[in-house]
Amino acid sequence: MRDLSRCVHHPAVSQEGFASLAVPTCRASTIVFPDAEAYANRKYRGPDGYSYGLHGTPTTRTLEAQLSALHGAERTVLLPSGQAAITVVLLSVLLPGDRVLIPDTAYPPVRGFCQNYLRPRGIDFAAYDPMIGAGIARLMTPRTKLVWLESPGSTTMEVQDFRAIATAAHAGGALVGCDNTWATPLLFKPLDHGADFAMEALTKYVGGHSDLLLGSVSVRDLGLRQTLKDTMRMLGIGISPDEAALALRGLETMGVRLAHVGRVALDFARRLEAFPAARRVLHPALPACPGHAVWSRDFKGASGVFSVVLPPEVEPVLGPALSAMRLFAIGASWGGTRSLVAPMTVAADRSAVPWTEAGTILRLSIGLEDPDELWDDLATLFEALGAALPG
Ligand SMILES: *Cc1c(COP(=O)(O)O)cnc(C)c1O
Fold first, then answer.
1. Pick from 281, 315, 282, 307: which is nearest to 389 by CA?
2. Which residues are annotated as modified residue N6-(pyridoxal phosphate)lysine in the UniProt record (predicted)?
3. Cβ(107) to ligand 1 under 6 A?
4. Which of 46, 121, 193, 368 could disulfide-link to 162, CB 3.0 to 4.6 Å?
């Protein structure tokens, strides 16, 4: 072989005895075959065979298998973001004329996708009261092919009666999908409660360091997996092994991170209830949270995200008070090592159950900083807000 050829041929080295604890990052577009016959027969390599980098590498397959094990799933597919994971489920199930039901409290871009992408293409949707339970049966029509859940609900934290909704949805001939990002499979396993699709934004707790975007969908039915893979293949969607490697690393510490932020967040939620500027604290472990009893029945614990409804009177001082926070950063997304606060309004995204609170909602994501120092930051904020209240 001459030098120019040597430049592009990587010599094979022994992998024997290389027992690293880290999963190797395998990059590929092209996959080569040992002979012409193997290439001609590549489509018979089966759903787990390697054919093209877009459709899977040992790195992405490792992450898929690990998530499947955690969810009690047969297979998992990986998507470039949590939002992509949701839209690919919807696109793989729904045909023109069909209808999907989404909770009023769904992650807002889901409603946007239904309204601005699906509806113009002849696929209808309706938003339902997240607390509807078995009453979802009243909304089922012969064209309802998918019922989506997100529990607890985005920002306002309503916990859904999963079993009741899934049973009624299946009785009506629909599939059931769930956004399980808040709980992760460590705190709730949707497939054990009747879901056909368990979706996660790995961007949040699995990644855990605010440096990657990924989504996953786990299923027990191999036919559903095939439909998801076919949809992804046609759309040309796959993920980078570098993101998968970061997610595999994040997953290793997720259990201890989640236990810590869950404990600190609940402690803060309880303490905030005493502050006049915390009009309502929305945390599933607090008895006043809608669906608290269902949460106690179905979930193993709480993660580190909860919300506080503010009285409208604090509005004039809210901006400066938030900007003065020392440890909490202001930003969306969550589930990383840094504590975040995001001022939210939800009324415009609610159609089934109008949101009647006039004040801003602060969504808090607790991170890994020193808890006492974090609490000082939070207490200072709520004291400053309280000073703006009349009396
Ligand atoms: C962040 C988030 C998503 C979307 O995830 P991306 O990876 O940011 O697209 C979906 N659902 C929930 C509940 C989320 O918090």
1. 315
2. 204
3. yes
4. 193
Residue 147 confidence (pLDDT): 98
Question: pLDDT band for position 43 (50/70/90)?
Answer: confident
- What pLDDT sits at residue 183? 98
- CA dist., res. 378 & res. 373, Å (int): 9
pLDDT at residue 391, rounded to an integer: 75
Query: 162-186: per-residue pLDDT in tens?
Result: 999 999 999 999 999 999 999 999 9
Closest Cα to residue 310, out of 281, 287, 284, 332?
Answer: 281
- 203 CB within 6 A, ligand 1: yes
Q: Same domain, yes or no, for 142 and 216? A: yes
pLDDT of residue 83 exceeding 80: yes
> Does 315 share its domain with 353?
yes
Q: Determine whether the shortest distance from the Cβ of 215 to ligand 1 is under 6 A.
A: yes
How confident is the model at residue 221, as a pLDDT? Answer: 98
Give the domain range for residue 130. Answer: 36-248
Report the pLDDT value the prediction gives residue 184, as an integer from 0 to 100: 98
Q: Is the CB of 185 under 6 A from ligand 1?
A: no
Is residue 127 located within the same domain as residue 107? yes
Orientation of helix 241-272 relative to helix 58-71, angle to 10°: 30
Q: Say yes or no to pLDDT of 368 above 90.
A: yes
Distance 215 CA to ligand 1 centre (A): 8
Residue 44 has pLDDT above 90, yes or no: no
Query: Is 332 part of any domain?
Result: yes
Q: Does residue 82's CB lie within 6 angstroms of at least one atom of ligand 1?
A: yes
Tell whether 237 and 260 lie within a shared domain: no
Token readout for 137 is 């049966």
Ligand 1 pocket, residue 155 CB under 6 Å: no
Mutational test site, ligand 1, from 87, 88, 102, 107, max ligand atoms within 8 Å of CB: 107
Compute the distance from residue 334 Cα to the ligand 1 centre, in Å.
9
Using the mean position of ligand 1's atoms as its centre, give its distance from the Cα of residue 82 in Å.
5
Model confidence, pTM: 0.97
